[in-house]
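Regression test case RT-17, inverse folding.

Input:
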């Protein structure tokens, strides 16, 4: 009954032959096929039959193979037991699992198989019920979801993967081609290295499947904003050339490409993806036509207007020097006039929900520039914000708080004017997306100066003033947003010195009264949000 053939192969390490290792080929004589995704399964079965492989199968797969003229035996014939409970119980039987789990080099296993008249199963081809596809459909009931939770399939997958030395497991239809190529090359046998790789893929598949099921149930009637256990399982979407720097390997995992579709240009880099995400999140803060320019994950200009062209010009005016080589995102269909203006300077990436007729053709004339279509509105996203630390993860809710006029509490003698209220809200929405410490000078429809990521809030205020002066922008009478409270009056006074007439900040400092007094002395209107927006 031993289907293993062992031989020695040379080992090549770093260009040098360094001895030999034992390799084994496993001859396929009996296969169990039970698949939900039937792509390529008939072709696979026909090749197996060409090598004289006995095939057993279940339900719909059995019928599909039989209809295609493939000689196939039903699992019920092997187990002597019918499929019951609407197909919930088919393969959960010793005649199946003993055949999968028996070690061909273990005399006791072989003796027990013989005593119970069970034949070994050398190959298991299984993929699972489409649970993920089911629960992502609209209006799916929990009963419908439950019926797509596979039981027998994962059990067979894990059993075959556990016994990979003696049983081959194939879970991915995209693997059929290379699997059959090796099978043909080896006269109906498969190497131990391939068996190990296929087993690893099977364990990854069952882990992903269970994670998706667990995530679905966690989302039902959950009162917790953060789960007790974080289960992550994401398929590699794209292998990237490198990470933040060329010496760092990197890849993109998950479903980013279901939200953002690359229409043109060079492949996206690690840093491009971070900037695209930052630009899209910031542009989603505004209802009016808005343009955002991002550089190194910070906004260097944001503008709103009656038209996108007007909005883009305002965003660009904030810091035209930093905008060179930046990422531009807009929250409306990109029109020809705005695209022409964007074309005037070097822009790495352009992100828009869509492109007007002829705009893509015009933008594509620059071969390397990436053009990205944002396919889905991300304002209602409720995914967790996850960052890695040494041997762990930091998990938090996403910062989805959006300020409105009603959220603000005036704390100074002078109240902001209507125009100042609008400018304060605009500045605050931008500050939420600026690295801390963040200071943003703005009017009601544009940024004027952005101070980002400084260790001192005063330095952020000074840098923003310097940037505005460099761009030739007047800060007189503008609004200033601080992402966290002013611990002393000096930060506020620096903003007033720069030209601020009104200030928005969270409040909450033990020296709030001192800061409010300084604002009153300079006739500056100040509002508290009771909400901070640190962004580390």
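Golden output:
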């Amino acid at each position: 009954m031993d289907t293993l053939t062992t031989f020695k192969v040379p080992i090549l390490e770093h260009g040098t032959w360094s001895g030999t290792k034992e390799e084994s080929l496993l001859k396929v004589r009996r296969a169990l096929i039970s698949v939900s995704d039937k792509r390529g399964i008939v072709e696979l079965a026909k090749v197996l039959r060409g090598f004289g492989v006995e095939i057993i199968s279940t339900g719909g797969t059995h019928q599909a193979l039989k209809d295609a003229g493939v000689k196939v035996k039903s699992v019920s014939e092997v187990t002597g037991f019918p499929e019951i409970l609407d197909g919930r119980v088919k393969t959960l039987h010793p005649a199946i699992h003993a055949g999968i789990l028996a070690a061909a080099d273990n005399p006791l296993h072989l003796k027990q198989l013989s005593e119970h008249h069970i034949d070994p199963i050398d190959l298991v081809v299984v993929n699972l019920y489409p649970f993920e596809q089911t629960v992502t459909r609209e209006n799916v009931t929990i009963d419908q979801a439950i019926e797509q939770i596979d039981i027998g399939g994962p059990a067979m997958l894990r059993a075959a993967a556990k016994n990979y030395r003696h049983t081959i497991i194939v879970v991915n239809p995209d693997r059929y081609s290379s699997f059959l190529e090796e099978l043909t090359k080896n006269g109906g046998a498969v190497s131990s290295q391939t068996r190990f790789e296929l087993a690893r893929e099977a364990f990854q598949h069952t882990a992903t499947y269970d994670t998706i099921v667990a995530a679905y149930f966690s989302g039902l009637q959950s009162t917790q904003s953060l789960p007790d256990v974080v289960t992550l399982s994401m398929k590699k979407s794209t292998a990237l050339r490198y990470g933040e720097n060329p010496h760092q390997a990197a890849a993109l995992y998950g479903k980013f490409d279901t939200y953002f579709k690359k229409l043109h240009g060079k492949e996206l880099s690690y840093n491009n993806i971070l900037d695209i995400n930052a630009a899209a999140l910031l542009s989603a803060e505004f209802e009016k036509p808005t343009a955002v320019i991002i550089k190194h994950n910070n906004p260097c200009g944001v503008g709103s207007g009656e038209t996108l062209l007007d909005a883009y010009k305002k965003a660009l005016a904030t810091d035209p020097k930093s905008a060179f080589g930046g990422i531009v995102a807009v929250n409306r269909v990109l029109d020809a006039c705005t695209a022409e203006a964007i074309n005037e300077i070097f822009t790495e990436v352009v992100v828009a929900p869509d492109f007007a007729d002829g705009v893509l053709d015009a933008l594509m004339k620059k071969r390397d520039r990436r053009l990205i279509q944002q396919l889905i509105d991300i304002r209602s996203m409720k995914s967790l914000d996850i960052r890695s630390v040494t041997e762990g993860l930091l998990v938090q809710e996403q910062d989805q708080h959006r300020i409105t006029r009603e959220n603000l509490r005036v704390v100074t003698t002078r109240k902001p004017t209507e125009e100042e209220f609008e400018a304060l809200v605009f500045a605050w929405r931008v500050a939420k997306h600026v690295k801390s410490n963040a200071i943003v000078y703005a009017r009601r429809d544009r940024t004027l100066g952005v101070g980002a990521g400084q260790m001192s809030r005063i330095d952020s205020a000074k840098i923003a003033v310097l940037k505005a002066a460099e761009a030739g922008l007047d800060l007189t009478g503008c609004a200033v947003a601080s992402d966290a409270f002013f611990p002393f009056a000096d930060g506020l006074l620096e903003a007033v010195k720069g030209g601020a007439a009104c200030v928005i900040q969270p409040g909450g400092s033990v020296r709030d009264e001192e800061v409010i007094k300084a604002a009153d002395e300079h006739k500056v209107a100040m509002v508290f949000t009771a909400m901070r927006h640190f962004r580390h």
